[in-house]
Design brief:
The complex is a heterodimer. By secondary structure, chain A is of the alpha/beta class. Chain A is built from nine helices and eight strands. Chain A has one domain: Vaccinia Virus protein VP39 (Rossmann fold).
Chain lengths: 209, 368
Amino acid sequence: MSATEAARVGPFVHSVLGRRDYAIISGIVEPNTRVLDVGCGDGELLEWLAEHKGVDARGVEIIGSKVQRAIARGVSVYQGDIEQGFADYPDQAFDYVILSQTLQETRQPLKVLNEMLRVGRYAIVAFPNFGHWSVRWSHLWTGRAPKTKLFPHDWYDSPNIHFLTVHDFETLAAKEHWTVERGIFLAGNRQVSLMPNLLAETAVFLVHR
Amino acid sequence: MIVETQSARFDSISLDCGAVLAPVEVAYETYGELNSARTNAILIEHAFSGDAHAAGISHDGGKPGWWDNMIGPGKAFDTNKYFVICANVLGGCKGTTGPQSINPATGAPYAMQFPVITMSDVVRLQKMLVEHLGITRLLSVAGGSMGGMQALEWAVAFPDAIASAIPIATTARHSAQQIAFNEVGRQAIMADLDWNQGNYYGTKPPARGLAVARMVGHITYMSDDSMREKFGRRFQDKDEALPDFSKVFEVESYLRYRGSQFVDRFDANSYLYITKAMDFFDIANGHGSLAAALERATARFLVLSFTSDWLYPTYQSLEIVSALRGRNRDVAFCELPSNYGHDAFLVDVGEQTELVRGFLASTLRSKP
């Protein structure tokens, strides 16, 4: 069974390239589509999608060394800031715009999401769920900014500046009148179907306008 | 790899200025083998003072090519995989027709009777050469500085004839500052009495003017950091005597050396014509805007700039990238860290090699 098939059938989610959210995302993306991965890092997901799904893969990444590695593996990556990274693209230039584990680090998440839905037909957003019970427990028990397996940083050196939960995202989607096509929730390698806001470590949403 | 410059001769070429050059000759070199499907050819574009000898060791002088660190077996432009071509530009002085060539109408060198040339003329002549070599579609056109301008021109003028373009440390059009530096060089040459309105062939060339022009050029190719590192405030001789006008800083000595060396290998009139062609270059010419021009381009792009390059700063590369993204073109862009200033694309090639290698390999995979 391939990793993508595994992602589809669950509840046990295998990983693609060592990442569970990648397995889900690669299961969502249809073959031979146009994909933009924002905050694409080394471009490994894009390379995988280009190779296995024949997608036209583009990326945006701010860190130069990662951009270099991505281009060296043949992926067309643009070195730039995520929040300005969309500006040049025409409307609906892509079928999917992927933002994986980065939304919580952006300064203006709503603006980023709106831009994703402007340049892409679908947005695929994966983020760590701040509503997970371990986070709640850590905060309640220590009375300090939560530190967990999922959020391992001290408050003063965390890249995360917005802490959102599964419910928060769903509420925003409803308010903005986005259609949530799919929501997939993960705890470890397991897909979560009950009480995702409490039990999911990672959420992956497929939304469109 | 011992290489020899070859030459192709064409009956004529019509220029943007309305003149016709007849005949016209192009000096070029090739490295590697053209595959049977003729899909692995790459055209390398030289910068302002370059020539056709881009790689290998010249059979006569034993000199390595100007981009020998990038072109060759196992290198970025891997000659085990690709057929690499490099030609001297029109107006040049290294075998391609230029101001020092004989004007058949007079039997004397053209000198300043040589018609004004543009980057689009330069590229049209290259197209003739590429077709002459039996190639209808290039895998890539690549070059730094003025070489990058030619890569852009190819992408816009002959979109179907290239699969990819690699413009490095370049611009879609010169800024006032870039034109200004070129003008200082031109004025230095023309202020030299030996220039004699361009009629110095067979007599004394304007060596002092050309040397000064080159000195200015070299300053713009380096960075503040690289000059501090290379020369600091050191004097040529070590003695700590009182200030004396004959004492020479190392940087002065270096520039004088590079200037005088240049005189032996470059023609002053070519300097005037080629710098003017660079200044005239604007990829938007005839298209209305940068975006409209680049809309014609269907190639994949790899655009590179360098952090310390103040002559062709990153913002100029970003203008190109932004226009391409605006038309949803396939473009990769990276600003590479380097202290070497504009010279980085020639000397600091470690990271550049990885990027070019990966980009070419994926281009070959996706657009056979």
